Amino acid sequence: MGSISVLIVGGGPAGSSCAWALRQAGFDPLILDKRSFPRDKICGGWITPAVLGELHIDPAEYSQSHVCQPITGFRTSSMGRAEVETLYSEPISFGIRRFEFDDYLLRRSGARIAPGVALKSLEKSGADWIVNGQYKADVVVGAGGHFCPVARFLNGDLEKVPAVVAQEIEFQMDFRQRDACSIQPEVPELFFCADMKGYGWCFRKGDFLNIGLGRLDSHALPTHVSDFARFLRRTGKIGFDLPPSFPGHAYLLYANTRRRIASDGILLIGDAAGLAYSQSGEGIRPAVESGLLAAKAIIASAGRFDRNSIETYRASLESRFGKSGEDWSTRIGRRLPPKLRNSLAAALLGSHWFSRHFVLDRWFLHRHEPALSF
Predict the structure, then answer these.
(1) For 315-336, what is each residue's pLDDT tens digit?
(2) How much helix, strand and coil, in percent to the nearest 5, is found in the chain?
(3) Most buried residue, 2, 215, 252, 337, by CB count within 10 Å?
């Protein structure tokens, strides 16, 4: 049986960021993932300069062999209403393909990797964790996304709180589709649902186009997605047919999660911990940052993640993401009658000032939050 200081379940951005930080400190983590990389991972896929800074990635270098679309603005609206275009003087985000980005982070982490290995069993033996009857680890990190088996181990049946459900598609356009697509690569477009329970998006990353819609209300999601596809055709955003159904996935918003995130020698990061931003649903930066914060807690504990380490990690998450994950607008919105809330939200989305300073700068880009240092 192999003895490991830290075993990470899941090789996405959360797991690979944690492993990368641990490697910088001299640890030798092992990453298990049920998939082999590179693997398909459909995602709107944008990363802010803060994420690149936190991981010490030069966008110019990364873009030499990977899709890295500079984003210098957004078009936002309540679906069917007047659109607001917000432009910036420099790139405020970069469009990436998760197929490439996740594989890059995983290889770059320098960690040992066990691809195609699912977590089948997790047992406590003294101070150690026995994984699949094959590995003995001091610390186990759950980084397997919304349905992470480590999260299920810590929490039993995963909680019945509302999750965001989304369907999206990403494909490389041929020359006819490129000519029939009005979406500008530098200016992705966001369309909020009339009931404010979700939004659709169109991101063009060079020749790749990502279209999707996510909602807190899972009822009739395929119908909402079909309506959105027809809206894009009707408004001339795209001039070609899309597939009748898109792949789906789910994740928790930080404001809704009730998951237990740590116990002796075990902790959760990223979507396994339910850390997606509550206002936008964006999860890459919270995944990366929680991975780095988890690594700091493990390093500080010298690899023995005890009760003091649990409190350190929990406190670091609360300090970074807040205690509730809600801001004043969300709290006010919950107290208003739905019709008034939706009408007010639609009016605010038509404001250039509100769209820039709240929707984009705060909710989607978190420009007010400096990058973590590691």
Answers:
(1) 999 999 987 666 666 666 667 6
(2) 35, 25, 40
(3) 252
14-67 per-position pLDDT tens digit: 999 999 999 999 999 999 999 999 998 888 789 999 999 999 999 999 999 999
> Residues 229, 233, 237, 243: is their CA dihedral positive or negative?
positive
Here the tokens at position 178 are 């490129």
CB atoms within 10 A of CB 334: 10
Query: CA 90, 178, 203, 97: dihedral to nearest 10 degrees?
Result: -90
Q: Let me know: does 184 contact 74? Beta carbons within 8 Å.
A: no
3-state secondary structure 160-217: CCCCEEEEEEEEECCHHHHHCECCECCECEEEECCCCCEEEEEEEECCEEEEEEEECC
CA distance 34 to 117: 5
Rg over alpha carbons for the chain, rounded to the nearest Å, is 21
Q: Per the structure block, which two tokens stand in for 24?
A: 């910088």
Taking the CA atoms of residue 322, residue 323, residue 329 and residue 333 in that order, the dihedral angle to the nearest 10 degrees is 150
Report whether 191 contacts 201 (CB < 8 A): yes
Residue 288, token pair as written in the block? 């990366």
User: What six digits make up the tokens of 7?
Assistant: 């075993």
User: Rounded to whole angstroms, how far apart are CA atoms 360 and 355?
Assistant: 6
pTM (2 decimals)? 0.94
